[in-house]
Write a structure and sequence with these properties.
Blueprint: H1 14-25, E1 30-33, H2 35-41, E2 50-53, H3 57-63, E3 67-71, E4 76-81, E5 84-90, E6 92-94, E7 106-108, H4 112-117, E8 126-129, E9 133-136, H5 140-146, E10 148-149, H6 155-161, H7 164-176, E11 179-180, H8 182-191, H9 200-211, H10 219-224, H11 228-231, H12 233-240, H13 252-261, H14 267-275, H15 280-283, E12 285-286, E13 292-293, H16 297-311, H17 316-328, H18 337-347, H19 352-364, H20 368-391, H21 404-409, H22 416-431, H23 438-447
Parallel strand pairs: 2-5, 10-11
Antiparallel strand pairs: 1-2, 1-8, 3-4, 4-5, 6-7, 8-9, 12-13
């Protein structure tokens, strides 16, 4: 197999070039490899700089002053230069994959070809050095130009070795806007059940990258290829649940795809958009006129979202924030300033910008009739939010002009009653923001 070289604007960090030069001067080969080469060709800023070399780990350790044996068993040494770590890994051939995720053993090799052959996709199987240029043995440049995700070699072998590559294919498709090649798709469909061997934490990472990508709608492909049936069956139910209402078009899942596309690619927002209607399949009823209803789907969905996110091992903040947004996403505040203040106080000022964006995206995913019915509501909601925020009006207990100590000073005993007084004062101020002064509130307490 011949090397394919091409000229691009390939700029690597000074430290990475120094590592490659030091290894080459010692008589070995060294290249930056994988995703950083792909990103340079695409004129993107690489996030990581991995280096592959024919030098054994002990040689790499001897060549550099500061190293960490981060994965010495698999040939990886981290070289520290200017307090930045660069992973340097010896060319290797992977042994058998007994757990569908990790090789039982690895064998070091002097062949770059063998090292690149074991990688997942052609676009990630290229190497580069300033001296030798791009080494592309499997058509990675052609696939980048054509916008294709294709396995290196036999797709079924690559996915059998490591089932996480199935999710990586979908994720790269979403991040780059690429199509997945037919044989690679067929292998995904056949081997999707192997995802049961992958840890929830690793699934979470790939799903998060997919949902927060420029093309979250590629979740439809996860359904079509049988991937979500294994890792997120709730998504399959959403894709298969119709919405026979004048406000929607298509299934719950198809509506959700449109909502995600209309949402900024932010972690909390994309997950809230993805799960906002997860409770609809469970709550769907059809009346005598053939019209569907989903009463209470927000509350059912909030609990389901919480369980799904816990199952994927998300952090507490994500679970709490997304579940709350799912629960309130359908709220329709009274279209008055007081009504919006009540809504902001209940949902929380910090979450309210997310709430507005979810409502905007939800409307964008509806039928033309549904969009039209939401325009006036959304326009007033955004205007009122901006006015209330600009005025700095009191919406939480911490913004109240009095605190517990003030109330105890006028005779309110410490205990549950103190909390009740503070809550009632907050409710009063939300209705009458001009009364949020210490004098006014203490007069009100004394009167009561």
């Amino acid at each position: 197999m011949e090397e394919r070289k091409n000229e691009y604007c390939m700029k690597i960090p000074r430290a990475a070039a120094q590592i490659i030069r030091t290894i080459e001067n010692a008589g070995y080969e060294a290249f930056v490899v994988g995703g950083c080469v792909r990103d340079m060709i695409l004129q993107k800023e690489p996030q990581d700089w991995d280096i592959t070399t024919s030098a054994k780990p002990e040689v790499v350790q001897a060549l550099f002053h500061r190293t960490i044996a981060t994965g010495i068993k698999h040939g990886t040494v981290t070289v520290l230069i200017d307090k930045v770590g660069y992973e340097v890994t010896t060319y290797r051939i992977d042994g058998e994959y007994e757990d569908g995720r990790h090789p039982k053993q690895v064998e070091f090799t002097a062949s770059l070809v063998e090292d690149l052959r074991r990688r997942d996709f052609t676009i990630n199987a290229m190497a580069y050095s300033p001296e030798k240029g791009i080494i592309d043995l499997f058509g990675g440049q052609e696939d980048l130009q054509a916008g294709i995700i294709r396995c290196v070699g036999e797709a079924k072998e690559r996915f059998t070795e490591d089932a996480l590559r199935i999710l990586r294919a979908l994720r790269f498709s979403a991040q780059l806007g690429f199509e997945i090649e037919e044989k690679t798709q067929a292998a995904i469909r056949a081997l999707a059940p192997n995802l049961n061997k992958i840890s929830k934490e690793r699934i979470q990472v790939e799903l998060d990258k997919l949902l927060c990508s420029p093309h979250p709608e590629r979740m439809e492909l996860a359904y079509e290829l049988g991937v979500s049936q294994v890792i997120l069956p709730e998504w399959d139910r959403m894709m298969e649940t119709p919405q026979n209402t004048p406000y929607h078009m298509g299934t719950v899942g198809l509506h959700t795809l449109e909502v995600m596309k209309a949402t900024p690619p932010e972690h909390y927002l994309r997950w809230a958009a993805f799960l906002h209607d997860v409770g609809k399949p469970q709550t769907r009823t059809t009346d005598e006129n053939g019209r569907d209803h989903f009463h209470g789907h927000e509350h059912v969905g909030a609990k389901m979202a919480e369980n799904i996110l816990k199952g994927l091992k998300f952090d507490t903040n994500t679970i709490r924030t997304v579940s709350k947004l799912v629960e309130v996403h359908g709220n329709k505040p009274t279209l008055t300033l007081a009504g919006i203040r009540r809504s902001m106080s209940k949902i929380g000022p910090e979450l309210y910008p997310y709430f507005i964006k979810i409502q905007e995206a939800d409307a964008a995913g509806k039928s033309e009739y549904g969009k039209a019915s939401s325009r006036e509501h959304l326009a007033f909601l955004k205007q009122a939010y901006e006015e209330i925020t600009r005025a700095g009006q009191c919406l939480t207990l911490k913004d109240l002009a009095v605190n517990g100590s003030d109330l105890m000073a006028v005779g309110i005993e410490k205990g549950p009653m103190l909390g009740e007084y503070l809550k009632k004062l907050l409710d009063y101020v939300v209705e009458h923001p001009e009364k949020n002064t210490k004098e006014d509130l203490l007069v009100l307490v004394k009167e009561k």
